Amino acid sequence: MMEKLQKNPAVIHQLMQSQDGQALMHLLNGADGGASLQKAVMQAASGNTAQITQMLQQIMQSTEGAALIGRINETLQK
After folding, report:
1. Neighbours of 53 (CB within 10 A)
2. Distance of alpha carbon 57 from alpha carbon 44, whole angstroms
3. 78: part of which helix (H) or strand (E)?
4. Structure pTM?
5. Neighbouring C-beta atoms of residue 74, cutoff 10 Å
6. I need a labelling partner for 37 at 20 to 30 A (CA). Which of 12, 13, 26, 78 fits?
7. Cα distance between residue 9 and residue 67, in whole Å
8. 18 CB-near residues (< 8 Å, 6+ apart)
């Protein structure tokens, strides 16, 4: 998923406009109002995707989060 998003920035815009993208952003922003997400994005932009990967793994631990990530992956494969 991350590789496809890096190769095609237009996909990111499309994803963020979708209902699933909005739900993902809500989960990623979490209790700290997005501070952790912002830090993770900055690190990912410089090549270190460990923190954003960890955040996604935490989301996938819930049934709702796993279903959400699954739908986003399906959308990205189309």
Report:
1. 13
2. 15
3. none
4. 0.77
5. 10
6. 78
7. 23
8. 75
